[in-house]
Amino acid sequence: MREKIRTIIVDDEPLARDGVRLHLAAAADVDIIGEAGSGEEAVELIETLRPDLMFLDVQMPGIDGFGVLEAVGTSHMPVTVFTTAHDEFAVRAFDAHAIDYILKPYDTERFGKALERARSQVRSRRQHREDDRLRTLLEELQQARPRRSERLVVRSGGRIVLLQTSEIDWVEAASNYVRLHAGGKEYLLRETMTALEEKLDPAEFLRIHRSTIVRIDRIRELEPLFQGDYVVILKDDTRLTSSRGYRERLQELLQGSR
User: How large is the angle between the packed helices 39-49 and 65-72, nearest 10 degrees?
Assistant: First the structure.
């Protein structure tokens, strides 16, 4: 290929990044344009540099390899070769969906085969042929992981933040996003209200409107309106209106507090 393959390396271990760089040294068609030592840095690199290819470590503190996949979204991910030392679940998932991976320490022959397959995928993308294997893998990972999330990957001032769900006061719909209100700060998350509701623990969060979810322990009082509707007043004096379609759970909450 005349155009070089713009490549980034993501691993929290510098020696592991050195190993990938060493194996790529003989590939004249590969141009290493960036390296990242964390998932947060990887997300920023992908969005800034738009690489063709990424070597991505599965096990990293904070946002791991799968967290990068979730944060970026499959439609914006570069061709990805995952690297892993001992994650048996990851290996089974990759094998099932023909997603390429290499095991640490890197075997020269295996690395070469992975790189050749990556070249082919980059070529296919450049010819505008869609490959949805990553999307299928992500869907399976989301199903296999625990349904309830204790933290969310969100954006704040151009940075990637790990927000604990326990910090969230309430949530509102915002076009194709949801806006999370937490301790006086706001964060945008590209998610639907329904999908987010499924990730939040129903013992801790309550949907009171088509476009509003509230953390139950942030509710200070309920002000009756009419026909079973309420104004939900939070401890910070935020006033939210419940809608008729969601009043049943609010009434259960009232009865449970008596």
Answer: 40
